[in-house]
Structures are given as structure tokens and as C-alpha cells.
Amino acid sequence: MSPARLLLLIATVAVATAADDDRAVYVNYTCSATGNYSDDSPFGKNLAELLPTLSLPARVDNWWFRRRTVGQASGLAMCFADSEPDRCLNCLHSVSPDPYTYRAACDHSRDVAFISSDGCVIRYAGEPFFGSAANSTTTARLLLRNTWKHAADAFAMKETRRWLLTKLAVAAGDDDDRRFATGSQGYDDTVIGTWQVMYGMAQCTRDLAPGECTACLMNNLGTIYTDVMAIDSTEVSVTGLSCYLIYKVNEPIRIAGLPAPPPN
User: Fold this and answer.
1) Which CB contacts under 8 angstroms, 24+ apart, belong to 46-49?
2) Cα(67)–Cα(223) distance, rounded to whole angstroms?
3) Nearest-CA neighbor of 123 among 263, 5, 28?
4) What is the pLDDT of residue 1?
5) How big is the CA angle at 62 (ends 211 and 254), to the nearest 5 degrees?
């Protein structure tokens, strides 16, 4: 894979941790004021029951999603479709006894949201939030990753990206079962004289309504347009608390349970 950078946009807090294979894991999280409940309060007891259920061992593929409400505590967890199963399960286990740093920074916060470059999202709160995208109209709390490789024919690439990712954002919103879409589109690079194929994927947490999902993804797409290093890049992913958007040129996106998309 080409060298890549990770940009943390308007992060509330962001840290990097070491993975088992020494690959850096980048996370971003946000939380309400700390010290908002005690362990023996009704909410504290509800949360203690809720969190382990969000990371129970389960098949991690493009269908995997879990949400639950226990008394006053509501939460969800999901692995994105192109995440590596083992790494995403480790990510989800960050809500359990050996957590990432965010559990210390968000000590006894009632509202917490967490995303990781390992491909998982975790949210929990003291009030129901299912159906509402988190920060879908701002660039806050995003992980944006792109390669240093820029398209030779930037105009053709950007037009293809706009067409493909907009199409996928709408299709993901219309997918009632999974809030997920993948596809590809070819274009002629007139600078180097070769045919290029762009592969894309769009995914939302499955609690979102169609319009909320599409709006969240379009916000992610807008972020790509405003980042000076990502705008001409041949590979970009934008991970938010409620949705995920990625594209790659000439590199199919591998998704568990699905074949590589055809080079249309």
C-alpha cells in the first residue's frame, strides 16, 4: 500500500496507540463532562451491563452491527465492511476491561463516541440517540486518511469521484437492510493515456434513516473537497461517528463476504 497520512480534523481528542503488529492505530473520540455519574447510580449500573454486550464475540463482516438499551444507557457498536475482522474485534473490546486511552479521558462521562482507524465505531449515551447522525453537518470528529499519490489527470479523477461517491451515498441511504453500498467507475486519464478504475464504498450505522445516512456521507465527501492534500489524491477514506466513505483508484476494496467489484 502506498505511504499514507492520517489527518485529524477539529478533533476533540485524538491519540495514536500501538497495535499488536506495530502498525499505528489512530483514534478520535469525544465525550461530555467527566464525573457525571457514580458506579452505583442507576445509570452506572445500566452502563456496566450495556458495554460488555457491545463487544461480545461475533462474526465481524459487512453485516455486523449491534445496538442495545439498558435502562438509562443506550449504545451501539459497528465494524465497517472493509475492516480486518480481528483488528476490529480488538477495537470493539476497547469498551471492556483493558480500554484505549479514551476511557481514562472520558472517565464517568455519560455521552461518549469513539472511532478508530481499525474500522470500528462505538457510541453510548444517557439518552436514546438511535436514528440521528453524530455531527453530520460539521467536519468535527473525523478521521481522514489519504495517500500521498495524486492523480495525473486530476480533473477526470475528481469528476469520476464526484459521480461515484454521490451515487454510493444515495444508494447506501436507500439500502434498508445494511445502509451500505459499493461500486466502481472507470475513466480515461488523458495525461498518461491509460484507463483508470475507481472503486468506492459508503456505509452508515444501520440505525440511521435514509436521509440521515446520505447527508452524513455527503458531509464526508465535502470534507475531501476542502482538504488540500486529499483533493487530488487517488485514495481517501473519511471515517465519522455515524458513517464511512472511501475510494481507491486501481485497487479494489476488499469486503468480507463480497467479491471484488467489477471494473465497470
Assistant:
1) 46/70, 46/71, 46/72, 46/73, 47/73, 47/124, 49/73
2) 28
3) 28
4) 39
5) 110
Rounded Cα–Cα distance for residues 60 and 179 (Å): 16
133 vs 207: CA distance, rounded Å: 9
Q: Report d(CA 100, CA 16) in Å as an integer.
A: 10
pLDDT of res. 102: 66
Place of cell 470500528: 120
State mean pLDDT over 155-175. Answer: 97
Element containing residue 91 per DSSP (H, E): helix 85-92
Amino acid sitting at position 18 = A
The x, y and z cell numbers of residue 122, run together, are: 462505538
Greater confidence (202 vs 21) lies with 202
Distances (CA, A) of 226 to 91, 115, 144, 232: 29, 21, 11, 11
Domains and CATH numbers, the chain: 9-132 (3.30.430.20), 144-249 (3.30.430.20)
Total residues found in the chain within this entry:
264
Position 96, amino acid: S
What is the CA 241 to chain-centroid distance, rounded? 6
Query: Over the stretch 87-108, which tens digit does the pLDDT of each residue have?
Result: 777 777 765 434 445 667 788 8
Residues 239 and 143: their CA atoms lie apart, in Å, by 5
Between 197 and 7, where is the model more confident?
197
Would you state the pLDDT for residue 92? Answer: 77
| Contact criterion met (CB below 8 Å) for 156 and 187 | yes
> For 172-230, what is each residue's pLDDT tens digit?
999 988 899 999 999 999 999 999 999 999 999 999 999 999 999 999 999 998 887 88
